[in-house]
């Protein structure tokens, strides 16, 4: 009789160890493992994710998110501008310039894309073209953006003072504003 009770108890404990929890399992708020995927859940838009990653300084991950957004939305001017901005943040100026030029060709009235193209041109040392691009961005924006105005002022000042030395060129830094607009500021 004692062997039956021990066998029965062992069998119950063994089966209890195999349980997945079911309805009786308690949900621990401090669990260490990731929650399971809800196949009926909605995914977050790749552009939103990319902009959040840009704000967090995760430019490579943002580039991947914008690439996924291109698969979802197609290569819209917003997606192309976002890809160009992520490449700008990563220092890939040639790729950034190519993408931003394509964006302004497809959407010539978008001031943010023109501004970011101007920042790329300033970074590449093409000050004259950058000032023209900033003028266009400022006109499209109706003068409402302080960042575009400041970028235009800096480009014009740099054109007027053509005897910049190597030390003076390094006094400027890019500052990211909003979801993808950049401002050129003097570094301290």
From TrEMBL:
Residues 1-25 form the signal peptide. Pfam families: TPR_16 (PF13432). The keyword Transcription does not apply. SMART domains: TPR. TPR repeats lie at residues 111-144. Keywords: Signal, TPR repeat. Belongs to the YPP1 family. Involved in endocytosis. This is Tetratricopeptide repeat-containing protein. It comes from Salipiger thiooxidans.
